[in-house]
Amino acid sequence: MTSAARRRRWIVFAVLAVGVLVADQLSKMWVDANFALAYPEPLPGYALPTPVIGDFVRIAKSYNSGVIFGLFDNSLPIPLLALASALVIAMIVLYHWREGLKSHWLLTVALGLLLGGALGNLGDRINFGHVIDFVDMGIGTTRWYTFNVADAAISTSLVLLIVIGLFGERLMRAAPERELTPA
């Protein structure tokens, strides 16, 4: 891979990470400033979720002091969660340096999304001691876990990583020399 192609990969990686980070932090700031804490059922001290697309997508602000899907809520110290996040961030950058630059460009996209999501949630943990979640999706009483932009980027990244894991060899054979180039 040429140095110009490597530079383009790093730019795509960084732009995606920063874009996710900015979108995540701005959306969380807006939701935190404009919505009360919400609970799906009437509960004293909580608002009801605000419908966005009927009952399917709602804004339901919550504070997640645990890890993914609210696991280990309040049982792990914030410095430990922040340190774990920082280690994951370092591993993402290292992996992109080692593998992302010589693999399919889709790996660069996946790792950029993953990095942006990890940075967004780390920023919340450092600034607030919890992560601000607000997207509530589901049908009726069957709801998914409440999430945010960073979580959506991480989930999308994981799907892309699964696709790369399943079809990586085919992807590399289909486009061995293709690079991200301006049209």
Describe this protein's structure.
The structure is a single chain. With 183 residues, this protein is an alpha+beta fold. The chain has one domain (3-174). It is 57% helix and 13% strand. It has four helices and four strands, in the order αββααββα. Strands 1-2-3-4 form a four-stranded antiparallel beta sheet. α1 packs parallel to α3 (105-128), α2 packs antiparallel against α3 and α3 packs antiparallel against α4 (149-174). The protein starts with a helix and ends in a 9-residue tail after the last helix. The mean pLDDT is 86.
Low-pLDDT sequence parts: none
Give the SSE order as H and E letters.
HEEHHEEH
> Quick check: average pLDDT?
86
Q: Percent of residues in helical segments? A: 55-70%
User: Can you count the beta strands?
Assistant: 4
Q: Structural class, from secondary structure content? A: alpha+beta
Strand percentage: 5-15%
The total number of structural domains is 1
Number of helices: 4
**What is the overall shape?**
elongated
Radius of gyration: 18 Å
Give the strand order, joined by hyphens, for the main sheet.
Answer: 1-2-3-4
What's the short story on this structure?
This protein is of the alpha+beta class and 183 residues long. It contains 4 helices and 4 strands; from the N terminus they run H-E-E-H-H-E-E-H.
Main features:
183 residues; 4 helices; 4-stranded antiparallel beta sheet; alpha+beta; 13% strand; elongated; single chain
Q: Strands, helices and their partners?
A:
Blueprint: H1 3-34, E1 50-53, E2 57-64, H2 78-100, H3 105-128, E3 131-139, E4 142-143, H4 149-174
Antiparallel strand pairs: 1-2, 2-3, 3-4
Helix pairs in contact: 1-3, 2-3, 3-4
